[in-house]
């Protein structure tokens, strides 16, 4: 930056200072948000492509900041990961979905699996498995109700540790999914090593497969390999009828995206399920 003259350099340092201040502010706000219960979860339906039934949901964090309004998880999760605040957030999410699952069961809603996103920082915690087991027992919940989503890039790091951790979670009876598949440059061959149930094809492939044969080939290959390993495939970010038709033709099992529903509050989700029952 220096060869462009002093101005650029000054600009750069002041920007850096600003982002550091910004991070500290978000950090401070997250601590407050945990104390003051500012987080909520929204639930996005995942649909069986063959039957059209809602078979699962993904829980997604929402945060309404008292001064700034809605802040995206894409903004605050990375900061939470850097500062170890992801642990208390992750714990809050886990307890919240267990509680919600129990409420839905009591209300007599059809059984749906709830998926939560687990960050690498949580995943590397040595007591993660015991912790989840403890929380499930506290809420008297069948482990099969809970699905953990870990990203493909996570699954590729610390391979031996990740494998052991996944196996323990599997032994507990949880469902395991690999998220954002296709973005992490792992080989399809690597999948056979992982004790996982579900592969989620990243949204970028679903969007591009309509125009680009390369992306369609990837989608096709992932479905074929996943099925040969008895895994189910979820397509993420399905927005159009055309995308859904292609996925159906290719034998994809499940779909998630705005075409079916955006993420909904618990109440909105209940209403949706009730209206579907009357179909
Ligand atoms: P993700 O796990 O890949 O979640 C899917 C994201 O795609 C969500 O964004 C969802 O709202 C969005 N989405 C769903 N359908 C469509 C569609 O048809 N089109 C488009 N364009 N987008 C769609 P969201 O809720 O903003 O979350 C962003 C990311 O933040 C998530 O990506 C996940 O990595 C992270 N995240 C969210 N909640 C949690 C959490 O509780 N814990 C952790 N560790 N990460 C979370
Ligand atoms: Ca996810
Ligand atoms: Ca994803
Ligand atoms: Ca993602």
Notes on the protein architecture:
Strands 1-2-4-5-6-7-8-9 form an 8-stranded mixed beta barrel, surrounded by 5 helices. The N and C termini lie far apart (62 Å). The protein has helices at 6-35, 73-82, 86-106, 120-123, 128-138, 152-156, 159-172, 203-208, 213-228, 241-249, 266-277; strands at 39-48, 54-65, 69-71, 113-117, 146-151, 175-181, 198-201, 232-235, 254-255. It has 279 residues and is an alpha/beta fold. It contains 11 helices and 9 strands. 49% of the residues lie in helices and 19% in strands. It binds ligand C2E and calcium ion (3 copies). One calcium ion is lined by residues 58, 117, 149, 179.
How is this fold's topology laid out?
Layout: H1 6-35, E1 39-48, E2 54-65, E3 69-71, H2 73-82, H3 86-106, E4 113-117, H4 120-123, H5 128-138, E5 146-151, H6 152-156, H7 159-172, E6 175-181, E7 198-201, H8 203-208, H9 213-228, E8 232-235, H10 241-249, E9 254-255, H11 266-277
Parallel strand pairs: 2-4, 4-5, 5-6, 6-7, 7-8, 8-9
Antiparallel strand pairs: 1-2, 1-9, 2-3
The chain binds ligand C2E and calcium ion (3 copies).
Organism: Anoxybacillus thermarum
GO molecular function, one term: cyclic-guanylate-specific phosphodiesterase activity
Domain EAL: 23-277
- Averaged pLDDT, please? 91
Strand content: 15-25%
Biggest pleated-sheet summary: 8 strands, mixed, barrel
What proportion of the residues is helical, as a percent range?
40-55%
Protein name: Bacteriophytochrome cph2
Organism: Anoxybacillus thermarum
GO molecular function, one term: cyclic-guanylate-specific phosphodiesterase activity
Domain EAL: 23-277
């Amino acid at each position: 930056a220096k060869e462009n003259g002093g101005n650029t350099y000054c600009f750069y340092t002041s920007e850096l200072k600003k982002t550091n201040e910004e991070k500290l502010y978000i950090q401070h706000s997250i601590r407050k948000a945990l104390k003051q219960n500012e987080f909520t979860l929204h639930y996005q339906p995942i649909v069986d492509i063959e039957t059209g039934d809602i078979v699962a949901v993904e829980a997604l964090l929402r945060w309404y900041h008292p001064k700034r309004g809605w802040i995206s998880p894409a903004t605050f999760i990375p900061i939470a990961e850097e500062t170890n605040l992801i642990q208390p957030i992750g714990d809050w999410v886990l307890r919240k979905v267990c509680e919600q699952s129990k409420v839905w069961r009591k209300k007599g809603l059809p059984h749906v699996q709830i998926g939560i996103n687990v960050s690498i920082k949580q995943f590397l915690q040595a007591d993660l498995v015991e912790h989840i087991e403890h929380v499930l027992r506290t809420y008297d919940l069948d482990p099969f109700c809970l699905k953990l989503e870990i990203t493909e890039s996570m699954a590729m790091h610390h391979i031996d540790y990740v494998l052991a951790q996944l196996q323990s979670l599997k032994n507990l009876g949880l469902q395991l999914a690999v998220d954002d598949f296709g973005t992490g440059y792992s080989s399809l061959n690597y999948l056979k090593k992982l004790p996982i149930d579900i592969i989620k094809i990243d949204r970028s492939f679903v969007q591009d497969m309509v125009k680009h044969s390369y992306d369609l080939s990837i989608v096709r290959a992932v479905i074929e390999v996943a099925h040969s390993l008895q895994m189910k495939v979820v397509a993420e970010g399905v927005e159009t009828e055309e995308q859904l038709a292609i996925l159906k033709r290719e034998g994809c099992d499940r779909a998630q995206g705005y075409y079916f529903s955006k993420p909904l509050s618990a109440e909105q989700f209940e209403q949706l399920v009730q209206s579907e029952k009357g179909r």
